[in-house]
Amino acid sequence: MPDRMAASRGVIQLRISRWAALAVLLFCGASLACSPARSSPEEAARSSPPAPAPPAAQTGGFDGSRAWGYLEKIVGFGPRPPASPNIRREQQYLASQLRSFGCPVTQDHFHAQTDLGTLEMDNIIAKIPGRNPGIVLFLSHYDTLRLPGFVGADDGGSSTALLLEMARVLCAHPRPLTVWIAFLDGEEDQENFATAYQAQTTWSDNNSTFGSRELAASMDNSGDLKRIKAVLLADMVGDASLDVTRDSNSTPWLEDMVWSAAKRTGFSRYFLHTSMSVYDDHMPFIQRHVPAADVIDFDYPYWHTVNDTLDKCSPHSLAVVGYVLLETLQELDHKFAPGPRQGK
User: Fold this and answer.
1) Which of 259, 251, 237, 238 is nearest to 324 (CA)?
2) Are 158 and 238 in contact (CB under 8 A)?
């Protein structure tokens, strides 16, 4: 998954992931040998039933319970690495759901040159015309890590479910700005991992983020890149113990807008003011000087382990992040397509 705060880079690029970094600082001190552990109250919370979502009427129309239903379906497909039978089933499901919402859908089929050879991949994009040609681009990756038994409930699943619900809300009610919602393939490092430790400490910028690199390049070639006003990436947003941190690679004014939205909605306690450097699907856009923000909770002890399962997530967390992103979109509408403010 994404951060890639690499401690060193050699023949093997070693990354200290978001969780690894936090685990070292918070739980392990100077020792890398200890195993991540949560405090007793947090563990007790995780063993309880998932926190229910607030009513959609209280979260701008975003229905956390619906998003949870999508997540259950997605996780039910099992491991979903690129070019696998399971990801093909997931792709069909995503496209079918988007069309059922009335979303115009395009699928960008491409071939990625990976360390495992050439792999077929697909980006699935819902394009919702607005009254203004400026684009707000929402991103999520929907593939999972190549680790036996890894179903990626939080890492890949949660943000995919969240953006499905965003599409349901937004496709029915076009806004001032044009909205693209892109489900990206091939975010994870394309290696066949045998252990969680390998998956947590191996990273190559050239062997990952294939979908976002493909999308950024194609939008650059078509001229659509110039229309983008903001990119909002959601990643690992379903953690039942939600702690979203700021990303130092993201565009500061856009992150400020997200954090202001969290404050307005009453959910600022889930959006922390600590920061780390994250390499994720927003970077191909940042590198092209497009404003982008990564909304991500890296404080997740099950990252890149087979324990990243549905019971570690909650509908409440999906509702919180979904509502904050909807509020951020409203602010972007006001900033770039001024007019009467949208009602809640």
Assistant:
1) 259
2) yes
Quote the CA–CA distance of 313 and 158 in Å, as a whole number: 8
Alpha helices in the chain (DSSP H): 18-23, 40-47, 64-76, 85-100, 159-171, 196-201, 210-222, 252-264, 283-286, 315-336
CB burial of residue 96 (10 Å; 0-12, 13-18, 19+):
exposed
What is the average pLDDT value for the chain, to the nearest integer?
88
Under 8 Å between Cβ of 187 and 141? yes
* CATH 3.40.630.10 holds for 60-336: yes
Sheet of 117-128: strand order equals 105-114, 117-128, 177-184, 132-141, 228-235, 292-296, 244-247, 271-276
Q: What is the pLDDT of residue 124?
A: 98
User: What is the pLDDT, as a whole number, of residue 203?
Assistant: 87
Query: What per-residue confidence (pLDDT) applies to 339?
Result: 67
State which residues of the chain have pLDDT below 50: 1-42, 44-45, 342-344
Dist CA 33 CA 45 (whole Å): 26
Q: Give 189: exposed, middle or buried? Use CB within 10 Å, 0-12, 13-18, 19+.
A: buried
Q: Checking DSSP bridges between strand 5-9 and strand 13-16, what pairing results, if any?
A: antiparallel
In the chain, where are the structural domains located? 60-336
Give CA–CA dist 79/82, Å, rounded: 10
